[in-house]
Amino acid sequence: MKNAIDILIDKIKETGNPTVMGLDPRYEMIPKCVRNKYAKTLEGAAQAILEYNKALIDATCDIVPAVKPQVAFYEMFGIEGMKVFNETCKYAKEKGMVVIADAKRGDIGSTAQGYSNAFLGKTPLDDVELDIFNVDFLTVNPYMGTDCVKPFIEDCKKYNKGLFVLVKTSNKSSGEIQDLVLQNGKTIYETVAELVNEWGKDLIGENGYSSIGSVVGATYPAQLKELREIMPSSYFLIPGYGAQGGKAEDIALGFDNEGLGGIVNASRSLMCAYKSDLWKDKFAEEEYAEATRAEAVRMRDELRSAF
What we know:
This protein is α/β, with parallel strands linked by helices. The chain contains 13 helices and ten strands. Helix 3 runs parallel beside helix 5 (78-94), helix 3 (42-60) packs across helix 13 and helix 6 (109-119) runs parallel beside helix 7. The model has no long low-confidence stretch (mean pLDDT 94).
């Protein structure tokens, strides 16, 4: 059986597109033509988000291999929001897309196991095990050490799932901690990268990559290149493209000679394409999904040209 990263790579090859669409639905981003259909309540907002998400998935599922819903933007709507998160994940999987839950979980012992049960494994109930969110990949924060990552890794092995471990993030202040130099002369992010290498050794698939991948930001191209050398078998989830300023030629530093090695996240630039300078005069607000598809094609072609 193919492991989780091989399934993702197969989808990337099938679509010819190393893109993941971030589904981070701030309410104000949703077109008025969708928002105005529903009451201004938590339930109404949740239904608007679900309609929006489904439309974007329908518009891109044949050309974008994966989606990455950011859990925070669903949690902020409480129980109704988490229902939408679950429905979004299910719908994307029904449409053949790989689902990466961006939750950045990280804790120790039974707490880490609880998070892992919810997203990657199963929740035990006497002699029954229940699927909760059942996504394909989960982002995790490793900065509490191996103890906080081990339960997730074990569930990846047991249930054929994958992780993307935060190594060098795309935000401006990431260097305040991640770039600190230790007594041995290595930075913190280099040390985490070495740990990721070790954690992923038992989950390397047929393409030479491990299901224990890394989050490495497009906004730091020098480190992206460096980390590719440190972690040759780690698949990169690369945020920072588009709205954050990451460029295709920079991103290419994290890929191998076959155009594999990473999947590039775009959230606002895809979700809000209908508002962008490039597309706002070509698509009406009601054609927001068509604008997202057009931007996904443009992004795909730009990335292809850089590799």
